[in-house]
Amino acid sequence: MLARYPAEWQARAHLAHAEAALGLNRLDLADAALTHMPANLPPRQALAAELLKARILAASSRFHDAAPRLAALEKSGDETIAAQAIFHRLDSGLAAGAITPVQATEQLEKLRFRWRGDALEMKTLRKLAGLYFTAGKWRDGLKTLRVATQNFSGVDEARMAQDDMRGAFTKLFLKGGADKMKPVDSLALFYDNIDLTPIGPDGDDMIRRMSDRLVAVDLLGPAANLLAYQVDKRLDGIAKAQVATRLAAVYLMDRKPEKAVAALRDSHITGLPDAEMHERMLLEARAFAALKQWDNALDLIAVDEAPDTRRLRADIYWESGNWAVAGQKAEELLGTRHSDAAPLTGAERGQVMRAAVAYSLAGDQPGLTRLRQNFGAKMKASPDANLFAVLSASIDQHGLAFREAAAQIASVDTLQAFMKDFTRRQADAPRS
Fold first, then answer.
1. 29, pLDDT greater than 70
2. What is the pTM of this model?
3. Which of 268, 302, 336 is a domain's end point?
4. Which domain does 403 fall in, by range?
C-alpha cells in the first residue's frame, strides 16, 4: 500500500515505524522497517535513518559500532540530528560503560543549552537530573527537573519530570537519603522543595523525621517551625493534636513555655488516647511551672498519681520554693527503697539529697533526721557519700560547706531532666 505514495511519504512512515518499534525494544521490527526505506532519500531523512541505525546498534549492545556513526552525525551540519546524536551517544555510552557519569554530566550540561524546546530537551534534563541524583547532588538534580516542569508545563513529559522530582524527594526525606547531608543543608533543601511534600501520612512522616533530626542536633527553632507548619497547614482533628503535642515539647526544650501552652490549648480535642492526654497534661503543667504559674501547674495534675506525674509534682514544689512539701514529695518518690538491698540509682540518690536540702531549708529537723536514718547507710556506700554527709548534717551545724553543697543540688536543671525523660518515653512508645 505504501508503494502508492511518494518516496518521501514512504520514508516518513518507515521512520515512524522504526522509531515506535525501537521504543518498544523490538529491534527486529525497527531494523526491518529501515530495510524498506526507498532509495535516494532527501538529506534530512537519510540522516534520520542513519541515526536510527546507530541507535539500533547501541540497543543491541554494539556501542562500539554505533559510536562512530553517532560521532559522524554530530558533525552532519543538521543541528536537530546532531543534538539527537549527542544525546544518544551519551545515553548509550553510559549504559555500555564507555562514558563515565562525570563525562556524561559535563556534556549533557552543554547540550541542555545547545538544544531547547522539544522532547529532546526534556530527555536531556531528565537524564542529567538522574546523574545528579546518583552522584548525591540532590539540589542540582531537583533544580534541573524543576526547569523541565516549568518549560514543558501541561504535557505528559512534564508530569514524568514531576514524578521524578517526587520520587527523589521521597528517597531523600522518607527513605533516609537526606541523613547523609548536614541537617542545615537538608532543611534548606526541604524548604526549597516543600511543594513536593506528599499529601497524607507519607508527607506527615517526612516532616516528623525532619523535625526529629533537627531536634537531635539542637536546632529547635527550625524544628518547631516545621511542626507548626504541619499543625497550621496540613492537619486537623486528632492528627493535629498529636503533632501539636510534639510541637509543645519542642517549644519547652527551646525554653518557650508560653508557646507550648498555646500549642496545646489551640489543639484541644476530645477522643485522644489516654496516654496522649496524659502527655499533654504533663507538658502543659511543666510549661506553667516554667512560667512560674505554680497553682495552675499543680491544679492540672492534682488528681493524677502516675509515677511521672508524681515526679513532676515534686519538681514544681522544689522550683516554687515550698521546701516543706518539696522535701516530703521527694522522699515519697523513694517509697520503701530504704528497706531493700539494691543500691540506689543515680536518680534516687538525687532525690535523697534534694529532700535533705528541702528539709534543711524548711527548718524540718525531724524530717532530716528521718531521712538520714532511712538512707544514711545506702548513701554512705555510694559515690555521693561525702555530699550527703554535708547535706544531712544537723541544721544547727550548717555553714559554708552546706551552702556550697545545696547550690550544687539546686543547679540541676529540672526542666531539662523532665524533657529528657519525656523524649525518652516518646521514643520508646510505638508510632501511631
1. yes
2. 0.77
3. 302
4. 307-424
